Amino acid sequence: MAALALFVxxxxxxxxxxxxxxxxxxxxxxxxxxxxxxYLRLAFAPSxxxxxxxxxxxxxxxxxxxxxxxxxxxxxxxxxxxxxxxxLIGGIAVWSIVAAARGRFLPPAAPPAAA
Length: 115
Prior knowledge:
It is elongated and about 60 Å long. By secondary structure, the protein is an all-alpha fold. It is built from 5 helices and no strands. Keywords: Membrane, Transmembrane, Transmembrane helix.
């Protein structure tokens, strides 16, 4: 989010602050990718939706970089980023629907406390 805010502040230009914030964001992305096998073993919980906002921000930042530099094949990179973030959010949506259909979307209610 910081990189996106800095992109807006700089008028869409890539300056040192955007580069620093994006580099730190890339470090965090690498840490999250390393944890992906652990995430895939988790049982469904509605809190998984919390992953969608930061990953959408990461995708938006990547798209800003791609459009800022327009490297060779930039359209392919754009489609890959959009496909990846769509697959993540769509996967969580499907997982939510399946959990709701099985009655496991929310955890069971706690038993009432003894008086």
